[in-house]
Amino acid sequence: MSDRKPLLFVQYGNFLFKYRNTLFPVILIPLLLILKPAPVHEGSFWSVWSDLIGWCIAILGQLIRVAVIGLVYIVRGGRNHKVYADDLVTDGIFSHCRNPLYVGNLLILFGLFIIHNNPWVYLLGIPFFLTSYMAIVAAEEFFLGNKFGEDYQRYCRSTNRWLPRLKGLSSTFRSLKFHWKRVVAKDYSSFSYWVLAAILIMGEEWYYYREAYSGDFWLTVLIVALFMDVLIFYISRKFKKAGRLAG
Questions:
Q1: Are the beta carbons of 130 and 118 closer than 8 angstroms?
Q2: Torsional sign, CA 2, 84, 129, 55
Q3: pLDDT tens sequence across 20-53
């Protein structure tokens, strides 16, 4: 039984890896946009600061993704929607953490949950996405262990699965060229989508609890932010299609 449980978890991870681009939004969108955001109470410390704290955590997650993609390119989608790797990538941020992209994703999700602040979002969203990414990592580790053997085991012994090692981080940045164009080309859509989700959540807050806000000021701010997010998405997409983000 002890061998069967990990194998079932790996199979679940392979399933999620294949369907995550469809399944994750199907789970996330109802959580954030159908469930009502938590009430905003004037004068409440948490109500005042929860949106800012959520944005800061999500931005931290995005910065981790930027650092990962900018330093070392890794094929994130596998092959034919299955876990796959041609090479064992251990450079860049991967020398400090084995799953930095997933750490970034989880921070972004947690930031969105804090902005929304409905208890049911915490109770349903956090366990689901934590378990899901743990299962995907289990599937990837199973594949990488079989393909790269002792090299991968040595890498695992020297590098944490989740908690990034900060020591030597500045040296890593100095030793590698940073590719801003690659960051924009590979991650502009993910960035625009989570920012859109955050703006829509705050729009819900304004709609339900507008009396706690300063007139229509915040609505104006959200409209401007929405316009800027769409503009960034459009320009990045145009530049990518025109080949101006290559190299």
A1: no
A2: positive
A3: 999 999 999 999 988 999 876 655 556 668 889 9
Q: Which residue is associated with the tokens 């991967």? A: 94
Q: How far apart are the first and last CA of the chain?
A: 49
Cβ atoms of 112 and 58 closer than 8 Å: yes
Rounded to 5 degrees, what are φ and ψ at 124? Answer: -95, -40
C-beta of residue 32 within 8 angstroms of C-beta of residue 82? no
CATH 1.20.1420 fits 4-177, yes or no: no
Q: What is the amino acid identity at position 212? A: A
Retrieve residue 92's tokens: 């860049």
Q: What is the pTM of this model?
A: 0.93
Residue 105 burial class via C-beta count within 10 angstroms: exposed 0-12, middle 13-18, buried 19 and up: buried
CA dihedral in degrees (17, 21, 27, 30; nearest 10)? 170
User: Is residue 90 within 8 Å of residue 154, measured between CB atoms?
Assistant: no
Q: Is 43 exposed, middle or buried (0-12, 13-18, 19+ CB in 10 A)?
A: exposed
Low-confidence ranges of the chain (pLDDT < 70): 1-5, 40-48, 75-77, 212-215, 247
CB distance 37 to 118 below 8 Å: yes
Q: Tokens 């290559």 appear where?
A: 246
CA angle 210, 211, 213 (to 5 degrees): 65
